[in-house]
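Hey, resending since the last one bounced:
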Amino acid sequence: MMSKKKDTPYYIGLAIIIVIFGYFAVKNVVHYINKDKVVDSNRTEDRAPVADKFLYKHGKIPDFKFVNQRGDTITNETLLGQVYIVDFFFTSCGLICPPMSKNMATVHDELKKYKNFKAISITIDPITDTPEVMKEYAARYTDDTRNWWFLHGEIDDVFELAEKGFSSYIKKSDDPAIRFEHSGNFALVDKEGFLRSRKDEYGNWIMVYRGVEEFDALPQIDEIVEDAVTLLND
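The structure tokens again:
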């Protein structure tokens, strides 16, 4: 009997320890469950919509009205609901335009399966580049121009669109052999008509993608295709 009385405080103390341990264990479990819910919620928030979060939305493309190589009138409203990639070129260019068009052909081939995708090449030499001339030029790079339009418009309108809509460098050259100077960039436009882009390797937002190699930097063909697919699936 004396032994049992001596042991009684031990069991009481053990019971108290178990109760206290159980309280904190349950509290921690609840904490981590709630934490997991928050993490899961944040992950969902990050994923939806991906395009809005990870592709920067620049300004809206200004109004334009051009004609494609088939003689169809194309405006910015025509392209609403479409994701499109734009470059500026001219058919008699012997420098960066051929590799640009070759790379645009790669982009077109990757994305033409999407019914709401368009590749848009806008001539900066509309006096020479009539729809008929551009139709011949297009045939060098593709036999399927349903989703690749070569646009022709008034030269002042083209230059203004390039500058204000795409921050694209275009200038008439004093060298008659060159005739025009221009950048070799591709621009990505979403379904609502906004210019979109990703961050560069340093974490800074870019505005356009390299359409040709520049100073040993490779063209950003894979990147713009990937980002176009993101917008197409949004």
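The domain at 53-232 is CATH 3.40.30.10 (Glutaredoxin).

Sorry for the duplicate.
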